[in-house]
Design goal:
single chain; alpha/beta; Aspartate Aminotransferase, domain 2; four-stranded mixed sheet; globular; binds pyridoxal-5'-phosphate; aminotransferase
Amino acid sequence: MFDNSNELSPWDRDHFFHPATYAGAHARGEMPTRVMARGDGVYITDTSGRTSLDAFAGLFCVNVGYGRQKIAEAIAKQAKELAYYHAYIGNGTEAPIRLSKMIIDRAPRGMSRVYFGLSGSDANETNIKLTWYYNNVLGRPEKKKIISRWRGYHGSSVMTGSLTGLELYHNAFDLPRAPILHTEAPYYFRRADRTVGEEQFAQECADKLEDMILAEGPDTVAAFIGEPILGAGGIVPPPTGYWKKVQSVLEKYDILLIADEVITGFGRLGTMFGSEHYGIRPDLITISKGLTSAYAPLSGVIVSDKIWQVLVQGSDQLGMIGHGWTCSAHPICAAAGIANLELIDEMGLIANARDTGAYLRAALTEVLAGRRNVGEVRGDGLMAAVEFVEDKDDRAFFDPTKKVGQQVAAALLERGVIGRALPQGDILGLAPPLCLTRGEADIIIENTASAVDSVF
Ligand code: PLP
């Protein structure tokens, strides 16, 4: 824990309801807030003047790095010229129109339109509604269930909290169970029998999905949602062949595929989209974090032409599609998005994510090799995870109450590097800004090794 308490601390303690908070500990002053003040590249500085290397890019989102003047200026220019006008039919502003074209130019083949929201959660709400609308228009009112995966993260609103397959996000909230179902997480390290190869495990996951579809009745299942690589649920890349097998099950039963690319969209895996990286052919794609590098809140659903044609048919029959927010397609956020996508191209960040990501993961694997408590180093692109175990040889997991992952993250922070203990399991997550240099990667690697040694 890091304390830079100042005159704001009483207000923070008594009035600010933080997202994802331990309310009691915060209210009692046991969890002081580290208040951040400035950022530059991969570095962030708090109000006491202490600087850390942010190896988690905020929350997997500040992909271009902090302090980019180009984006700040684009936001200011838009705010001065026209801070807001709505985009309900017959109205709009320039920036979201331009941005939709830029996104479709970069999107996987077959994509046609972008619906803009403000958060990954609301974009996934839009996905659920579009999926239901689609099946209603096609005269299939029973085809409504959505299959998600244990350990998937898709948001924390009412429906998307339910989609999220982490119990922590369900506890005591009475989120709707139906029409959401969860299937096996493709988590080879934790779930697979050691005698089973990766490809065979991928087949088992696809078989379980098919069994679930058959048990529920294929005519009742509308869509499957998944992150190309599990993110908050452990940074777990799919086992070999997983997406191909899943895709063929879904096609067999005419079930839509929603690729949740909130983390992977716009470069994190070293390709523009994770779908491209793993050969996924989605019907809908969720985007958010990397779209503006979180300089302004913006999300989107990229809609395939297949879905769009049905929406057109539905709207011709039923009238206006009654879905939208006051701030959908907000021009200031869209201006940030345009500048951000331009910067990703200008700085060559996608190639850098691929190269520096490979370097970071290889060096981390090498430096941590042989340590009894490091079960696995894994990841893809600029996403890496270190999973801790009691004993690597027999894959014995720690008692979760020991919070070993959090201890390592705290030790890393003391050394000046921000990583993140992922919420389920003893996993240290690393997802630095895509502008990370090899020198900065070395700082992360050295300090991770030192933090691990200080805990075990
Ligand atoms: N989908 C994925 C894959 C995410 O990682 C997240 C957030 O971490 C979300 C959706 C939800 O996005 P938000 O927090 O903006 O609502």
